[in-house]
Amino acid sequence: MSDPPTPVPPPDAYLRTLLLAVMAGTALDAIGLPLGWMVGAMLATAYLGWREAAAVPRAVHPVGLAVLGLGLGQTFTPPVLGAVAGALPAILAGGTLSILAGLAVAPLYRRIAGSDARTAYYAAVPGGIVTMAVLAQRAGAQVGAVTMAQTIRMACVVLFFPPVVAVFAQGGRDAAFSAALPPFAWGGLAILLAGGAAAAVAGSRLGLANAAMLAPCLLAMALSGTGVLPSAVPLWLVDAAQVAMGASLGLRLTPRALGGGPRRQAVAGLACAFAIAILLALLGLALGWMAGLPPVAVMLGMAPGGMPEMAVTAKALELAVPLVLGFHLVRTVLCNLLVGPIWRLALAVGLGR
What we know:
This is Ammonia monooxygenase. The chain has 16 helices and no strands. It is mostly helical. It has one domain. The protein is globular, with a radius of gyration of 20 Å.
């Protein structure tokens, strides 16, 4: 029996969602909440979504990602690229530790959800929602349970991690990772946005993971690293991208999007989210101290949230944005390369049974 078709929202639902998302984002940003635009839009859209009254155009998510990619990539000036390259050993260690942390937390998910060990592992590893769903499908895990756990973790980190990091934000600033950007110019921005859109399309056709953000980010990194960036990406445009990202994430928090799985799966995802957030925060602080890097920035780089969300948090708190982005970029690559082999190794030594 096929699933019922998704209802087509009325035209006024799009306007209602936009207005409430912008109002909520404005309110939270006005009180100084880090990531306020994104969190406000997420909560507002989720509220409407539970009432079956939310609607967000499909193009909003990739467009928001492309703008964020350009805004984050522009921070990679030649001196910053050198500093990030020098931190590469710590970045590789952080990515590997993040996957191992998921392996350590997986038994908690399994115990609460009553799932098999394979599904628990893929639900616990802090990769992106789409990335882990694809990897889970290839590995034969329960994709619905993995998607629910990854979505709940993402929402929890977006809600709670930025305010906690803000308390210690002073410890994350480092001149070596700060960039002097070119002035804003309308013509240059138009060229940059067109180039970002073309890069996103090309990256998608080439099969690049998270191409909507990563390809424009790589383009901006190349332009900034060679000193030919035509314009800085203004803050108001980054804020608008935050609203787009928050609204898209809010739609994932509705019963329809989560798939209506058992309540114990949701509880397991919530418990797992807090457990791995605490574990990775401690590991990040320790790694930053041992590597001689700003510990709070490393903690944010190892946070179990998504790459766009955590990089924008770093930007909002004036932390070492390129360093944080470097951690998340490398973790994305390592998840695709190492999640499967680490699981097979765990099975071989008896940890996955």
